[in-house]
Amino acid sequence: MLLNLKKLILSSILIFTIYTGNLYAQSSQDFKLNKNVDIFFSALRELRSVYVDSLNIDDLFHSSIEGMISKLDPYTTFVPEEEAGEFDFMTTGRYGGIGALIQKDSNYVRIAEPYKGFPAQQAGLVAGDRLIQIDGQDLKDADINSVSNMLKGNPGTTVELKAVKLRGSDTVSLKLKRQRIHVSGIVYAGIIDDGIGYIRLTSFTEDCSRDFRDALTNLRKTGDLKSLIIDLRSNGGGLFEESIKIVNFFVPKGTEVVSARGREKSFEATYLTKDQSIDTQIPIAVLVNSATASSSEVVSGAIQDLDRGIIVGTRTFGKGYIQAIRPTGYNTKMKITSAKYYIPSGRCIQAHNFSQLNSDGSVAFIPDSLKKEFKTKTGRKVFDGGGIDPDIKVESEEYSRIAVSLVSRNLIFEYSLKYYKEHLAIVEPKDFKITNEDYADFVNFLFDKTYDYQTTSERIFKQLTEAVKNEKYDSETKIEMDALSEKLKHDKLKDLQIFKPEISQLLEAEIVNRYYYQEGRVCSMLRNDIQLDSAVKVLKNPVEYNNILSKQ
Hints:
Helix content: 40-55%
CATH architecture of the largest domain: Alpha-Beta Complex
Radius of gyration: 29 Å
CATH superfamily of the largest domain: 2-enoyl-CoA Hydratase, Chain A, domain 1
Structural class: alpha+beta
Oligomer: single chain
Shape: globular
């Protein structure tokens, strides 16, 4: 009896010690938080009182918050009040306005691209039309953000525009009724080759799963659909819930798609498909690249782990963090990383290694020491470490330096406006080709335009020159180096002919966009797509397709 009493007392002391220890740890953390908040506000008060120049308090606060979260991962961000509308559009794809992209053009702002089926396009506005007034206010030298805000507004309200038309240069007055703009993540869907369906999904915006379902249903109604390509290349993600719904179309109800694990238990969950599938048998190929991220990796990773289809392309970005949107008052928000994704095999999408990055921010190299093996539903080996490795690796073709320069300098776009101005109509996107005469006209168009670039050979030669100079060989090799430099110097006219095929493809896609919008652009680009061709080839070969999925 006495022994039991001692045990009870010791247990009580232990529990009390743990409890008080936890309380102390918590109170210690609370004390540190309160202490540092007091110090911060004291420092701010002193700056405001004593600093030699006047201060912008909003800027100081925002900079302080951004400095604080810069010590964390790159996906935890602060959204100030003035960016709240743009943030909502990026996450939902919805806003109230006329439905058009705009860009600066000399002293004014012009339409860069109207969205098909929305007020701007329905009113006859086209790319290149210059906006000179909004609701009677002159727009000369107006800031593009100010113009954007003037065009946006509550759905149902009207906005009066005065514009100078690209074709004819007439000045027209237009009254447009703003509407709720929903930019669908589905930019193109169709049968592309012998019963092979294709759906291009560019972002996981609100209700994109509904748009995807409609596109899939329409493809099935043709009666020709035998297999499906889902294109998630350069899809940076978006709304997490939409990715689960899309996987649900192809796997049975109750299938685990992804789980979330975080420090706070409230953010942990396992996500199962909730509805009956549409088609659990159709062969699927998912196209991915290094810019396929987040929700796109949930879809491609789940398809791979469940052996529901094959993945074609290059390794994906490796973003397996989940962000929670938390209000911080006065219409500001914080997007805070709260958990990590784990797909059905148990592997995490998030990249472990950030020492070597590609230009797009994705991890360039993952050492074997950071990889861990997992198994798909049928026992195929897959690995974590960052992103989704494709079942069939196909590198995309890189554009030449001159082509990149022409795009970045907006010269491909500018020529498309010239072409659109001079040609009332063109043939269907899949059939449109520019002629040799058109290309010669483009070369003439570039005659007085400013653009430059550095070839790979020139870049490497520059590094060699610096190395030769550092090692004191420059005086001995000057004649040879000067001669080599002259030989490597790029010739724009020569490069325009060498790289004519790829520049022509870019021109065709941009010109088609003027007449057939984004849908036409995608259709045009698909004609010269080696990753797509590889997916088509496998889907046409059921034996090879099944061998990939059954490979142990």
